[in-house]
Design goal:
Layout (H helix, E strand, L loop, with lengths): L1 H22 E11 L11 H23 L1 H16 L1 H4 E12 L4 E11 H10 L2 H4 L7 E15 L4 E29 L2 E29 L4 E7 L2 H13 L3 E2 L2 H4 L9 H10 L5 H13 L4 E9 L3 E2 L6 E13 L6 E15 L2 H26 L4
Parallel strand pairs: 4-8, 4-9
Antiparallel strand pairs: 1-3, 2-3, 4-7, 5-6, 9-11, 10-11, 11-12
């Protein structure tokens, strides 16, 4: 019973942390003000300290956007004055970490830690976007094709090794042949006798030299993976919500498919992603032509790759990582134009079971990827 209670508490902590991360962010800020000394004192006044505090709060929001990425930081530039004028709306609480009053230089510095209302910041960015400001009839139509998948099988190949041996042999032979002889005759009593002697010597010297030269090559082939597709109903809700809240008229691909003259086939897209990381060029061309026929000018698509589960060291729960890539294409002209891209970026989710950890990671990855794509198209004033 105690074990079940502990797991339940850890799950609540993980869920609360995820929700807090999505809506509230902590960031530090630091600011300094220069004040004028007077005959009545050389310390910073209450007004000087208040100005430094508000400047530090704005710096904290700016720091949050700087960490969020380039496109998010550009969005903050558009709402900076609104945030500075309404800090109480965007800053939930502020803690002073350090303050210094350099009376000899007449400089007051304060460092703060703030809790930022991320939801309000996002609403402010959306309210100022061209897409959000457009009338409903003028809003851009957008559909999306995101596939979540996990490695189903992986085929690896042994190294192919080629060896070559070159052998050479050299033999040097030297020889000498000496011959010498003596012949003689003797006459005795009417007889003639002969004698002869021959001396022969032969010398041969041989020398052999062997040389061996080896060489070759090793060929390595990358592994081949096949993927299995996860149902994306929950992810569709995430993508639809974020793109719609950004001001797009979102149409789910399943509803658009019948109006594409048979060119957009969701099954073909899924089959391509089962065997590779990219859509086949022929499939992508069919998708583009089909959406153009259906008069849908914008397409968001990509993959969410699910990793293997392990144990989260902080909570002891199951942990799953998801790597997401995606882009938005403008199909309104003859040749598609890439408007925004994201990834590959990895996000992790935890849960008491692998299935729940995977679901949390997929939702987090989908949410973050969609927001990044929206931030980039907001910067270019897309309607």
């Amino acid at each position: 019973m105690q074990v079940i209670r502990n797991v339940f508490l850890m799950l609540l902590v993980a869920t609360a942390a995820f929700a807090a991360q999505a809506q509230v962010a902590n960031a530090r800020g630091k600011a300094s003000v220069t004040y004028q000394g007077s005959v009545f004192g050389s310390k910073a006044s209450a007004d000087d300290k208040q100005k430094a505090l508000r400047d530090a709060q704005v710096k904290a929001v700016e720091f949050y956007y700087a960490e969020a990425g380039q496109s998010e930081s550009a969005n903050f530039d558009a709402i900076r004055d609104r945030v500075a004028a309404n800090l109480d709306k965007f800053i939930l609480d502020t803690t002073v970490l350090d303050e210094q009053d350099q009376t000899d230089k007449h400089v007051y510095t304060v460092t703060v830690r703030t809790s930022i209302n991320v939801a309000q910041l996002r609403n402010a960015v959306k309210a100022g976007s061209a897409t959000q400001a457009a009338a409903k009839s003028d809003k851009s139509k957008l559909t999306f094709l995101f596939v979540s998948r996990q490695v189903d099988s992986e085929k690896s190949f042994d190294d192919r090794v080629y060896k070559r041996v070159d052998r050479g042999t050299k033999i040097d032979v030297q020889g000498a042949d000496d011959r010498s002889g003596v012949e003689g005759e003797s006459i005795r009593g009417g007889r003639i006798g002969t004698n002869a002697s021959v001396k022969r010597s032969t010398s041969i010297e041989a020398k052999r030299t062997d040389t061996i030269e080896t060489g070759g090559s090793t060929t390595r082939k990358s592994s081949e993976s096949t993927w299995r597709i996860f149902p994306s109903a929950n992810l569709n809700a995430v993508f639809t919500g974020i793109f719609a809240s950004a001001g797009f008229k979102v149409l789910e691909a399943a509803y658009v498919e019948p109006y594409t003259n048979g060119l957009l086939k969701i099954k073909s897209v899924e089959n391509d992603y089962k065997s590779g990381n990219d859509l086949d060029p022929a499939t992508l061309r069919d998708v583009v032509r089909g959406l153009q026929a259906a008069q849908v000018p914008y397409l968001a698509f990509g993959t969410l790759d699910v990793g293997l589960a392990d144990t989260d060291p902080a909570t002891g729960l199951q942990r799953v990582a998801v790597t997401v890539t995606g882009k938005i294409l403008d199909l309104s002209s003859g040749i598609p134009e890439n408007l925004s891209t994201v990834g590959p970026v990895q996000y992790a989710g935890v849960g008491p079971t692998e299935a729940e950890a995977r679901g949390n990671a997929l939702k987090k990855a989908a949410d973050s990827a969609a927001r990044e794509l929206v931030s980039q198209v907001t910067n270019i004033g897309l309607r």
